[in-house]
Amino acid sequence: MSDDRDMTAYCDTGTPHPDPAPGAGGPPFAECVLCRRPTEYPESYKGITLCPVCEWQEAQRTACSG
Fold it and tell me: Residue 49, Cβ neighbours under 10 Å: how many?
């Protein structure tokens, strides 16, 4: 079965991509409270910030703690 339609025309909405939320996804990043490596969170984030590795390890600990 062959389809000659242009798929980019199907997927393109014609609207520009929205700007990211202010303060999200850009430096400066908060440091991990356990290992002090940079996290995915901005410095303005409230609460405990963990890097992806420590976040994964913490999830493993809580999943196994029963």
Answer: 20
pLDDT digits 0-9 by tens, 2-22 = 555 554 555 555 555 544 444
Residue closest to 40 by CA, chosen among 54, 25, 53:
25
Return the structure tokens found at 46: 């409230």
pTM over 0.90: no
Domain count of the chain? 1
- Residue 13 resides in a domain: no
Q: Domain range spanning residue 57?
A: 26-66
* 20: in domain: no
For residue 37, is it within any domain? Answer: yes
Type and span of the H or E element at 45: none
Burial class (CB in 10 A: 0-12, 13-18, 19+), 31: middle
